[in-house]
Amino acid sequence: MRTFRLARVAAQAELLRLRRLARRQAVRAALGAVALVFLLACLVALHVAGFLALVHVRIAPIYAALIVAGVDLAIGLVLALLAARDTPDRVEQEALQVRQAAQAQMAEAAAVTALVGPLLRSLGLRKVYAVALAALTARYLGGARH
Description:
By secondary structure, the chain is mostly helical. The protein is 92% helix and 0% strand. The chain is built from 4 helices and no strands.
């Protein structure tokens, strides 16, 4: 029974961790897409600035286009850095720890079951009841003294 509870806790923790991972990846993808838009805008502005520089129409529009390109580049770089930041949040880390603890306890419970099962079968039914009764008596009487 405890093993099933631990398996359920481990599955729930893993599901929560995967949801948080998916959410984080979606945010990264959205920020990356917006950064790409700004980087493309920077490229367009640089093309306009180059065109204006070659034509030599006026100096003010060239500097205006370069300023726009610089601002687009700065915004694009900030968003790209935010998209590149890949750190799991506190909830995702805790869910991973809960899953690992539940899996460790499941392994311990399975090992105890694997060891005790054959031993109890070899003792026979009467001896199993006697050992179980002795263990329960010792546990409850021993616990009453504390």
